[in-house]
Structures are given as C-alpha cells and as structure tokens.
Amino acid sequence: MAEKVKPYKNSNASKKEQVTEMFDTISNEYDGLNRVISFGIDVKWRNKVVKIVSQKQPENILDIATGTGDLAINLASTNAKEIIGLDISNGMLEVGRKKIVTKKLENIISMVIGDSENLPFGDNTFDAITVAFGIRNFENLEKGLSEILRVLKPNGIFVILETSVPTNPIYKFGYNIYSKFILPTIGKLFSKDKIAYNYLSESASVFPYGEELNNILRKIGFINVEDKPQTMGVATIYTASKA
What we know:
The protein is of the alpha/beta class.
C-alpha cells in the first residue's frame, strides 16, 4: 500500500483537496518548471508512452491526471478519434485548453474535470488509458486503479509513466541528493507555492515502484503487467491490459 503523503501537513483537508489546491496554485508555472526540473527528459518519456499506445491503434483514449494536457496533445498523433483529458484541477485544465486551441485539436481532445476514483464513464469504454506523473497523487491508489480497470475495454491497454527510484547504488545516491535538496530548492526559488515541490519530491520517494507496483496492478485484476525503467531508473513506464 502506498504511503499517504499530503502537500500541506498542517491542513486537515483530504489529500485530494490539497492536491487540487496545490495544482490550481502552480498551474501557470507548471510546464516551465517541469522542463527545468526534468532537464526536458520527460518529453522523451512521454513520446515512448505515445509509441506504446499507438501500437494498439486506439479509437478513444482517456488520459487521467492530464494536468496541462501535454500527454493528451501528444496522443493526438495516434490518430485516435477521441481523447479525453481528465483532472481534478481546473487551473491545470484551463492551461491545457488554451494549448489545445492553439494546436487546433479541440475537435479531438476534450478536457474535463473529474475524480480518478469515481470516473464519470461507463464500463468498458476506452481502448487505451494513460496516467503520466499523476498516479502517486491518487488519494486511494487501489480504488483509482479499480476504476481504471472498470472503464478500460477488454484487451485495451493501460500505461503509467511515473517517477521511481534507481536500484543502482551510485544512481540512487545522486537521485536522493537531487530529489531531497535540489528539486525543493528550485521550487522555493521559482514557484508561487513553496511547499508544492517538497511534496512532489517526498511523494515520489515513498511511492511503490517496479515489482511492488506491478503486484498492486495484478491484485486489482490487470494482466500482462510489465515495467520498463527509464533513464537509469528515475522513471518507469508500466503497461497492463484487461482480460
């Protein structure tokens, strides 16, 4: 079970409420800071997710925790007829909507506010479902994954892109220094929310990854579960399907 880390430790609000507040606050700065913090490598990781999804030739895709819509926009290259980006932060969605209009993709991509643990869709609806850097923000991981399994079509594909911790001791040492000290410092210098990047760092460090997350996915009922570590293991792409 994932350890529950909240953005604002002095608040009595639920994790879901706190995450919503945090992303609403940093929505306008998120894209720029994300590129700086990841050295732009996150773009490469998202492109790999798109390539995996493209192989399934999906007609419709749900991108959960879509944020400002980067992955949803990239997924347009799959030639899917419908892409829905869902997020609990309207601030992030508003930034994404502007990007979608600029790229003239509003006939394909729609951005909707919604809760990953109570998805507003019927059973067996989507050919493909993706979550990029959002699954660790779920308040109840197993409930969210169960909802994803419910709305995924049989033989559909589910792809997660999430941070992870390198297993190589040298890489792990460097990762810990960066995530515990450098990342929060960048956040404090450039973010409106001085706490947000502490949370993003801490939540990444305690979230299950590799075989531990694989086993959670299998427990929920997913099949063909695989993990593919990226860039020395600082991120991992997980793929799964539904019987």
